[in-house]
Structures are given as structure tokens and as C-alpha cells.
Amino acid sequence: MIKYMIVDDETTSHNIIKDYASNLSYFSHQKSCYNAFEAIEYLNNTTVDLLFLDINMPKLSGFDFLKTLSNPPRVIVTTAYKEFALEGYELNIDDYLLKPFSFQRFIIATTKVRDLIKPIKNLDVSSIFLKDNKKHHQVKLNDILFTEAYGNYVKIHLKEKMIITHQTLSSIEELLPKNQFIKIHKSFIIAKNKIVLIEGNLIHILQHKIPVGKMYRQNINELLS
Q: What is the DSSP string of 9-51?
């Protein structure tokens, strides 16, 4: 999960970023600040992975604020002023979004940052957050038996219960460590250590029998080799 905060003096900008980010399962909103001083106070006690930063703010500009940080997070600038782009890249920002920016452009910028952060974040992953309406369930990876595509949703099968999350199977796959989970069908990802029996093209996990798709048989062969 990538923890992000927004520093921008415009409420509309906050709403747009949060709306866009809510469609991405790997983002978790931590704080909305409306000036640089709020952000400085927050970051004195808390760390985040990504900062969405406006430039033109009262009293202390976004770039002047950024220069005060000794160990800044990843930064995506969101501004209506294209003339500051060069200065931004000199400050090692990750991307520069000109307002109003589209969801597609937002995806490009955030995917770039996700790919930079992901190798670090995946070193020690013990749980993930699953979105359910306005709730986010924290689920331990060791409790997951398998995941199942279910239309526009995904069923997360646990030993004692099942959670249905409004996410895609591919977005869930990105959250699951490859050394612990394996995709065996276009609709199923299973936990390797929960396999009880492999019988032909069926995998037994507790009382469940899960099919192996033809395209994914090689994954099973590699698991057994």
C-alpha cells in the first residue's frame, strides 16, 4: 500500500486527486493539507510514500516547502503553471501534472511512482488492505486461501470467512507477493502454502476444488519442479 498526502490550497484539487486515487487499490490517503505549514507539521511526526504537491500557495510555495525536507517522499507536482517544470525536475520530482489533468495522465504518473516504490515495499509484506465500499479491511496474507474473480469484484476466500472487494483480479495480483501466491487460472490466484492436494487439473484447498487453466499449467509445473 502506497501512503500519500496532498498539499494544495484548492479544495477542488484535493477532491479530484482523492477521487482518481480511490480507483487504485494500492493507494491509501493519509492527509490533506491546505498550506505548506500544515504539511511540515504533519511530516515532522509521520512519513508518507508520495506527496501530491501544488506550487503556487500563499506564504510558502510548494518548491520552497520541498527544499525544507531533508528526506522528502516521492513527489508528483500538480499545478496550473508549466513554467516551473524545469525547477521541479532539478528538485528530483517524479512527475509534473498540469491542471486540469485527466485520469489517464494521473495513471501514467502514479504508475511510474508505484514501480519505483514497489520493490522497496515488497521486501516485507505481511498484510494488504482490501476496499469494500468506504471501508478498507486489513487482511493478513497468511489468512488468504485464494482469490476468485467475480464480475467487477473479487472474492477473497479466508479460512473463516469471505470478503468481496470492488477491485479487479489484476490489481489484487499486484498486491500479492509472487513467492507466496500463484495464478492458476484467469479467475483464480491461490496461496502456495494452502495447497493440500494437486489432482490432475484440480487443486484442493480445504473443502475447495479449484481448476487449473490450460494457459497456467506451466505455473504448476514450475511449482512442482
A: S-HHHHHHHHHHHTT-TTEEEEEEESSHHHHHHHHTT---SEE
Angle, to 10 degrees, between the axis of helix 103-121 and the axis of helix 11-21?
60
The structural domain count of the chain equals: 2
Q: Are 163 and 17 in contact (CB under 8 A)?
A: no
Range of the domain at 166: 127-224
Three-state DSSP state, 88: helix
| Last residue within a domain, chosen from 73, 91, 123 | 123
Q: DSSP H helical segments within the chain, as ranges?
A: 11-21, 36-43, 62-67, 85-90, 103-121, 169-175, 217-224
Quote the CA–CA distance of 43 and 9 in Å, as a whole number. 17
> So what's the pLDDT on residue 123?
46
Among 75, 92, 123, the domain-final residue is 123
pLDDT at position 128, please? 84
143 and 212 fall within a common domain = yes
pTM for the model: 0.55
pLDDT average per 10 residues of sequence, the chain (225 residues): 92 95 88 94 89 92 89 92 83 91 94 78 68 80 95 91 88 86 95 94 95 91 85
